[in-house]
Amino acid sequence: MTAIVAGPYVGATDTYVAGDGRQVELGTYCRRSLAEHMDSEEILNLTKAGFEYFEQLFGTAYPFEKYDQIFVPEFNAGAMENAGCVTHRDDYIFRSRPIEALVERRAVTILHELAHMWFGDMVTMKWWNDLWLNESFAEYTSTLAVAEATRWSDAWTTFQTIEKGWAYNQDQLSSTHPVAAEIKDLHDVEVNFDGITYAKGASVLAALVGYVGRDKFFAGIKNYLAAHAYANAEFDDLLRELEATSGRDLSTWARLWLQEAGVTTLRPRLEVDEQGVITSFVLDQEIPAGSPASLRPHRVAIGGYAMDANGKLERSVRIEIDVDGASTVVSELVGSPRPDVILINDDDLTYAKVRLDEASADFALKHITAFTASLPRSIALASAWDMVRDAEISAAQFLPAALEALSVETHSSVVRGLIAKVATVVGLYLPPAQRLEYIEHAARALAQLAQEAAPGSDTQLQLAKAAAAHALTGEQIERVVGWFDGSAPLEGLVVDQDLRWELLISLVAAGRFGEAEIAAEAERDVTTTGRERASEARCALPSPQAKAQAWEKLVTDASIPNETLAKSLRGFLNVTRHPQLLAPFVEAYGQIVEQVWSSRTFHMAESILAGIFPLPAVGLDDVDAQGVLEQWLQTHTDSPAALQRIVRENLDDVKRVLGAQAVA
Question: GO terms for biological process (predicted)?
Fold first, then answer.
């Protein structure tokens, strides 16, 4: 298959000397209007580092003649691995200062597509059942390459925070499926480009590397690529090579991890005597209610963290054990003093829901800033967050720990993830009657954190955006106005064009700015991005009329481009302060599902039906979102499976929101 990309593209070129001595021509291109913003040198240097890393890792030279990367507009995916001619969405050309998490995400994407040149292009799956193998392998090896061959040496912390969070969420939906899913038709293919195929699959491959050993794993990979170069293969072909190099029978492992869906829970049971010495320790593995998972083998690290004289939680003990079955006795910890925090799945070696013992969980949340590294802090918070989602603790208990963590966290992706969780707490997981109090508190805390952050830092930029997004009181809103117009600037915060739009949209959603300010900013920013952000702002206007107009346009106007659609949907749901604005659209949703599905392409229909559902209205009086979706599913059993899946996933989200609100 040949890819052809045509347009007024400009760019830069370079060469790479492949492992077999060939000169490989490299190119990176974007629209002329974005050329001044394209950091070609960084992109090409990153690409060459990836070439060198993968040639060594895979044991074979780059398999094609050239390697171009084109950043294209209105792309409905992150990127596409056409052999020698990769296309990326041009959101990855940053015209204003991006947060570091997005720059790292671009690096992962660039190396993900490069990994596909070997795994997916040089060796291609026979059928879509092995889609996961292409994507999981590219996701795993791109993170490995970013961690070991670029400046983002802590990429596995990003993976734990962002990618694994995506996988765990997806794996607990009613639509979960095995990593190696059965694919019957192209609709199955389209819906399975998801967190299972990418992030869970990559997590499982990381666990497999730990299970068989890295050297033996990649020896098998090299043999597999050599045996099937420029041909088609199946997972069984890879499994045979891995069994040969590792000397292990992997059939049971593959069945439990790849051919069965769901996630299990790891939970400790321990006893401590009066002197604080551990007298027994058992790690239980459980199957969550309703999960299709079976008990699985895990390689797990357990870390003990003790508070030192300086008030820091330092790791005092670490062990690795093999877990298999319902209960595993951990004799290595018996007879040792009990640490303040016992962290299950320390270093994030396996894929599992984690529960800490009650004393560890309480201590960790109360002293979350005492962790000296991002990864253990993130693992402890992830466990607490999963408990919020499972309605085991209230969102109000989680919020203080998240805000405290933001006072010390500097890892960009972790900061990004924590801010997203804060937004979910105050916008969804707290009952509507309590939200304004907590929104005001969050906005105050975020603004204070932004003022205390290092001037000009990535953390300050993220915190300022978050403070603006939650500004509620007159004082909070006017502070954002001061940042926007420069009348009361925040030291170190450079308000470039994209940040101006972020602040303006927050002020629009708060009711402080309106159409006049939107129009003025659109005149100032006469670009495609400017038009997209203006549409988002208009959809965020906090009036019933504006929401009705946005709904009508999003549902009926099939001419809306991809990026405008995505940003407009985000504006429509920007109602943290006014969730009642979306109440009328809960019933209306059930009436437009088939209309949208039949009038749009799959991708556009999926984006609309997943992105327009008025989840912030769940929990309001006289709003029965669960009933609306259940009624639709009961009366549309003959609808396409892919469409039913979208509606079921919305229903899953509704149930989770209601569950979280019930314990708040």
Answer: peptide catabolic process; proteolysis
